[in-house]
């Protein structure tokens, strides 16, 4: 065996060992119960379209987009903080501001687009067909997330995927079995998602 063959053999062995070393060894999450609810009130985020309706005052009723810094600007309203507020909270804040110019303003806020704040999103990175940030919905599961991102790529190591989750003030990592779930139909691999989860899907070595 010449030197070249030896080097190729050593390189292949190294890849095998590296592939084994990267296999997820994090704890598993419990099977989904299908009724997990972690959020109740929608909070406005940058990028949301906000319709401000002021009763009997069409001149100050408008639709605006929340700026990247979390503020909005509207007639008689300049640099009003909107991010992280519920639509009702924002409506009451606008009423206070408008009371300087209008008598007993009555405001309704309607949100469109539903981008939400980062803490209420689920971010999917790596070997998903369409990596993206999704707004969490009550009772959302791993299967729901994978449907939304179009499943796995051909190069994904689905059973080595992990969820990074904030628990008790610290970020923890959990192993999930996406391949078993969507390619083998193993429903026991389905887990409940939480707002703020980051789903990481690595690339397979082989």
Low-confidence segments, ≥5 residues, pLDDT <50?
Answer: 3-22
Shape: elongated
Considering the protein shown, what is the CATH homologous superfamily of the largest domain?
Outer membrane lipoprotein wza domain like
Strand order of the largest sheet: 7-6-10-8-9
Count of all domains: 2
Gap from first CA to last CA: 26 Å
DSSP, total strands: 10
Nearest-angstrom radius of gyration? Answer: 24 Å
Instruction: Please write the CATH class name of the largest domain.
Output: Alpha Beta
Structural class: alpha+beta
Number of helices: 4
Q: Major sheet, described briefly?
A: 5 strands, mixed
String of helices and strands: HEEEEHEEEHEEHE
Q: Tell me the fraction of residues in β-strands, as a range.
A: 25-35%
Tell me roughly what share of residues is in helical segments. Answer: 10-25%
CATH architecture identity of the largest domain: Roll
Could you please say which CATH topology of the largest domain applies here? Outer membrane lipoprotein wza fold like
Provide the residue-averaged pLDDT: 89
What does it look like?
- With 206 residues, the protein is α+β, with helices and mostly antiparallel strands.
- The chain has 2 domains: 49-112, 2-Layer Sandwich (wza like fold); 118-201, Outer membrane lipoprotein wza fold like, CATH 3.10.560.
- It is 21% helix and 26% strand.
- The protein has 4 helices and 10 strands, in the order H-E-E-E-E-H-E-E-E-H-E-E-H-E.
- The chain has helices at residues 3-21, 87-98, 142-148, 178-182; strands at 49-54, 62-65, 71-74, 77-81, 107-112, 121-126, 132-135, 161-167, 170-176, 198-201.
- It has a 5-stranded mixed β-sheet with strand order 7-6-10-8-9, with no helix packed on it. Strands 2-1-5 form a 3-stranded antiparallel β-sheet, covered by helices on one side. A two-stranded antiparallel ribbon has the order 3-4.
- Strand 1 and strand 2 (62-65) form a beta hairpin.
- It is elongated, with a radius of gyration of 24 Å.
- The two termini are 26 Å apart.
- The model is unreliable at 3-22 (pLDDT under 50).
